[in-house]
Amino acid sequence: MSTQNPPIVNPAKLQLEHWTQGTFYESRDTSFGALLGLKDLGIGYGEVPPGKSGCPFHNHHVEDELFVILEGHGTYRFGEERHLIGPGDVLGAPAGGPETAHQIVNTGTVPLKYLSISSIAATEICEYPDSGKFLAKTRVSTGGTTEFRTIGRAGEEVDYWEGEPGA
Prior knowledge:
By secondary structure, this protein is mostly beta strands. The chain has strands at 17-21, 25-31, 41-48, 59-60, 65-71, 74-78, 81-85, 90-93, 102-106, 112-119, 123-128, 133-139, 146-153. It has a domain at 16-121: Sandwich (Jelly Rolls), CATH 2.60.120. The protein has a six-stranded antiparallel sheet, with no helix packed on it. A four-stranded antiparallel sheet has the order 4-11-12-13, with no helix packed on it.
């Protein structure tokens, strides 16, 4: 008999972290892949209030994402298009360039509740087309701890040897 927790999670019983950023971003959410024993698959649950989004418009270069809408209604901004979404809809966000940039916005009157599922890569680059930023990060495969993380803005290029001693 195993002393380990069973690989079962009910999102309604999860402890959610509430956060806000500015006037447009707000969510109650959590990641719970580790509770299921998953090492290379990320899974989260989020509740976004009306008129808000849980993240900026962005695209991943390595990781694929998938969203399952559980309750509420919103708009799925994908590339240059916008799609109305509601309960039962499954949204794909494959790795790629700006054409796969994505964002979920709650345009309904009740909290938008969804699952987010993603592949977990050792190294990832994300771009944020609205702000011109990029995120570069690496992580240890066990536990998902980030070892390197930097956010910058494209446009300032330096020579490979710049600043190196003796170069």
